[in-house]
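Hi R.,

As promised on Friday, here is the backbone we talked about, encoded as structure tokens. Could you run it through your design pipeline when you get a chance and send me back a sequence?
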């Protein structure tokens, strides 16, 4: 097996030198869980001729590629059909002695040859040709590697449009790894990636970005938008921490209203979550909200439902999750209007609860890495969480000495059951 693999490598090394175009190898990664870089996922290997204006070399298509990849599952690798990959001979896929996986796409120059692989019309200079695909397990992410002799990934072009064929080495072989949907090099897709993806919709330089092109068509279209939204929604809840005490300098606020006074055992109530937005700046359009709420004292009430307000298509997608003591609210805007910036105390969500025990319990907001993201600016998305005060409250009325427990100005206390009727 090693002799046959060595022969394949030798074929790459002994290609006749010539002035030629460059070869681009790209590894596209799509996480199983969009906001978890170590969740495993699927990968696709692409090849493309990069025009250098050094003659016709490269214009007839890719003859072969030798991709050296780390951290991929060798048992899942398949070649794309219709590109001239032989079905006999090889080995075309193997694990080298240093653990790197070698993937050899190599047309038989003496047999049927497919021309034009990796060569596309000039009006689509970014379109790539799929060569192979597979998966990777949870843990380290796939990357281009080296073989035991420190050779890197390489390839060759066809010398002509018809037989007899020979292989021509590219001037340069470039390799790049792209996490689809990721615009800030986090290896994940989050709310902060929404506006940058939207700004690529023109599909050409300077707006084109490979992370936005999910289907590798060389442009960014509504199809890529749908795949981006689907990938963003395939997420796991990010870790939350209690919101910090307000400093008093915040430009906006998030607060509770509704039924927060005493209630008899077994009685139900409705909590409203409302927002005073930062003037005309924030609507969370082309961004979103990722917010948590939890009870400081379990056993007083239990949450029974949660609903994000999505009137007039405010959000592209929403999700609510709750248990007895906590609620998680996640809203995404992609071209959706987001919150109504002209409305004071705008309603964001409602939570139903049932009284199950005596006493009172704090209502506490929890925030994550990107709780409030606004993307209306042409400059991209911005995390504006720090510009907002998160005002804690309580269900029931605490004893006077409980006011020393650190709620300060964050706690809104009500002497009797009351309901605020603000603008929806």
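Update: got your reply. Pasting your designed sequence below so it's all in one thread:
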């Amino acid at each position: 097996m090693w002799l046959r693999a060595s022969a394949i490598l030798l074929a790459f090394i002994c290609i006749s030198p010539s002035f030629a175009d460059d070869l681009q190898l790209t590894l596209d990664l799509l996480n199983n869980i969009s906001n978890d870089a170590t969740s495993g996922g699927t990968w696709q290997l692409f090849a493309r001729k990069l025009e250098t204006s050094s003659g016709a070399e490269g214009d007839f298509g890719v003859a072969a590629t030798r991709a050296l990849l780390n951290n991929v599952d060798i048992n899942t690798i398949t070649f794309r059909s219709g590109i001239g990959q032989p079905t006999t001979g090889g080995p075309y896929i193997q694990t080298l002695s240093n653990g790197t996986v070698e993937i050899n796409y190599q047309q038989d120059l003496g047999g049927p040859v497919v021309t034009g692989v990796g060569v596309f019309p000039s009006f689509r200079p970014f379109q790539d040709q799929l060569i192979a695909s597979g998966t990777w397990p949870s843990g380290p992410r796939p990357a281009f590697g080296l073989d035991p002799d420190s050779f890197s990934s390489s390839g060759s072009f066809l010398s002509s449009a018809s037989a007899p064929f020979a292989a021509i080495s590219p001037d340069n072989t470039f390799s790049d790894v792209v996490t689809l949907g990721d615009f800030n090099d986090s290896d994940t897709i989050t709310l902060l990636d929404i506006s940058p993806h939207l700004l690529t919709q023109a599909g050409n330089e300077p707006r084109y970005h490979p992370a936005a092109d999910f289907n590798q068509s060389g442009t960014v279209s509504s199809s890529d938008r749908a795949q981006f939204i689907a990938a963003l929604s395939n997420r796991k809840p990010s870790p939350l921490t209690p919101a910090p005490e307000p400093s008093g300098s915040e430009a906006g606020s998030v607060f509770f209203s509704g039924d927060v006074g005493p209630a008899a055992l077994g009685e139900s109530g409705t909590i409203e979550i409302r927002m005073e937005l930062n003037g005309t700046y924030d609507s969370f359009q082309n961004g979103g909200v990722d917010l948590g709420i939890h009870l400081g004292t379990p056993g007083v009430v239990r949450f029974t439902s949660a609903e994000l307000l999505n009137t007039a298509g405010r959000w592209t997608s929403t999700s609510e999750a709750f248990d007895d003591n906590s609620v998680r609210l996640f809203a995404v805007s992609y071209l959706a209007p987001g919150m109504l910036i002209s409305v004071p105390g705008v309603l964001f969500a409602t939570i139903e609860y049932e009284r199950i025990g005596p006493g009172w319990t704090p209502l506490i907001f929890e925030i994550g890495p990107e709780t409030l993201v606004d993307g209306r600016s042409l400059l991209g998305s911005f995390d504006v969480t720090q510009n907002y005060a998160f005002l804690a409250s309580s269900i029931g009325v605490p004893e006077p000495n409980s006011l020393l427990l650190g709620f300060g100005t964050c706690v809104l206390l009500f002497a009797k059951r009351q309901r605020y009727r603000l603008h929806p």
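One thing I noticed while checking it: The chain has three helices and 23 strands.

Thanks again,
M.
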